Amino acid sequence: xxxVNVSGLKNNPSEAxxxxxxxxxxxxxxxxxxxxxxxxxRRSSQPRPRAG
Length: 52
Description:
By secondary structure, the chain is an alpha+beta fold. It has helices at residues 6-11, 13-22, and strands at 2-5, 25-29, 32-37. Helices cover 31% and strands 29% of the residues. It has a 3-stranded mixed sheet.
């Protein structure tokens, strides 16, 4: 799981989006989890998880 703080998200949203394509991203607000970023689709270089 990746983490990013709110100011980092505001300053560089593209980096947070890239991270979300690799893994879940927890957005921290004052050192507490505040939001979760999940990509709607994975990059083609990532293997898809198997069902079941």
